[in-house]
Amino acid sequence: MNALAKIKLLSNKYDLVVESLYNEVTDEESGETTQEPITDIEGTTALLTTDGTSWEFVDEQWQQIDENIDKTILYSLFPFIMSVCNAIHNPFAKCLYSHIYEDVILAYGENTKEEINITGINDDIDVQADDYIIVKTCTNEYLTQVLEVSNNTVKIDNKGLNLRVSGNAETIGLLFVDFPPQFLDNVFAMLAYDLFLREDKEKRQERLGNYTYTNFEPHNYYGLGSYPTHLEDAVKYFQHIST
């Protein structure tokens, strides 16, 4: 499961998570294989898939629902993780696979500002798709994830970051980040707590099939000391530990 699926699962105690909304069915006579939608799983018509999207069975087909909720989570994710890392003074950046690149160009993806292409890299690229990295510019640092790598280009996720794009040649650092899985899982749970469970936030309800979401507000990192003790203890364990 990806981060979106893990956060939604932690927040709502899903008992129905599937890899696909369809089953392959082979005709015994013709041998042809077709896909038929899953329609009856433990009495519910709303499912969470391992890619984090939510679906509802309407008019004999699956329709994606709550895309606005997915956007809220995805736009909160990187800033929230970075906030927790700053709080424990450990960004988990590793010198290995990290580089400073000169004279590169940052440009938005094709028809979207949710992706940024870092082009003109004339040196080794040691990061790969799905790696977490910190992009270090002359003005700030941004935690993000690599989407794609080609010969001289690294495509990164820009959701929730608003990373500056000037179109001019500049020098940036790409710092490889090595998160322990148990650290990320607990940070995801903290974000879920902020988005869904924090009692002092304004509450409202949104329908998802047979489930109900609450507290869908953009994230606000409250700082250590305001989360369940078991989650805080789990992340503070890494405060002075180099992974």
Mean pLDDT: 85
Largest beta-sheet details: 6 strands, antiparallel, barrel
Unreliable runs, pLDDT <50, ≥5 residues? Answer: none
Order of helices and strands: HEEEEEEHEEEEEEHEEH
Number of helices: 4
* C-alpha termini separation: 23 Å
Rg, rounded, reads 21 Å
Instruction: Name the overall outline.
Output: globular
Q: Could you explain the architecture of this structure?
A:
- The protein is of the alpha+beta class.
- 23% of the residues lie in helices and 35% in strands.
- The chain is built from 4 helices and 14 strands.
- The chain has a 6-stranded antiparallel β-barrel. The chain has a 4-stranded mixed β-sheet with strand order 1-4-5-6, with helices on one face.
- Strand 9 and strand 10 form a beta hairpin.
- Helix 2 (67-87) crosses helix 3 and helix 3 runs antiparallel to helix 4.
- The longest helix has 21 residues, at 67-87.
- It is globular and about 60 Å long.
How are the elements arranged and paired?
Blueprint: H1 3-12, E1 17-18, E2 22-26, E3 33-37, E4 46-49, E5 54-58, E6 61-65, H2 67-87, E7 93-109, E8 112-119, E9 132-136, E10 141-149, E11 154-157, E12 170-177, H3 181-197, E13 205-208, E14 211-214, H4 229-236
Parallel strand pairs: 1-4
Antiparallel strand pairs: 2-3, 4-5, 5-6, 7-8, 7-12, 8-11, 9-10, 9-12, 10-11, 13-14
Primary descriptors:
globular, 243 residues, alpha+beta, 6-stranded antiparallel β-barrel, 4 helices, single chain
